[in-house]
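This entry is retained here.
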Amino acid sequence: MNSTKTNTRAMVECALMIAVGTVLAQIKIFEMPFGGSVTLISMLPFILVSFRHGLKWGLLTGFVNSLLQMLLGFYAPPAGTITAIIGMILLDYILAFTLLGTACIFAKPFKNYIVGVIVGTASVCFIRFICSFLSGALIWGSYQSSYEWAAGLSVWEYSFIYNGSYMLPELILTTVAACLVVVAAPKFFDAQ
């Protein structure tokens, strides 16, 4: 296949995965009151792009998705300062979603392809949690006072518990789904 056809195919697949991921993100199994939710494996399409088309396409697709997610659900941070807004844009959107495209990098060291898919998927989901955790502590920590259970906790502990409560289930669901897909239909993960 020539380069133009390959790039066109990759662009079409990436656009399709952005659409699928956006629809899946709207199917919320559980939603937190101040942002964050467990979705129907909405990160998996971007992880698939990373495996199928590599780092460049994975990052590009994740970045476009981050912009779309921002358009669909932007919340101004409580501090409202330019620093808080920039931090939120970077941590809650751009880095959190763009870095899903790095799954192929984390999988590379593993000879067993299924193990690589599992490690790659879990790693990028964990990176997304780290972004949410940092944002929760640095930008959204003022919401801690809204919860009785959070009284007496540091802002870091609060953010860890709050963001972990939806990101851990999301990580597990996405990793299990990736494992099931790679076992049942490994061609979905094949490099193109």
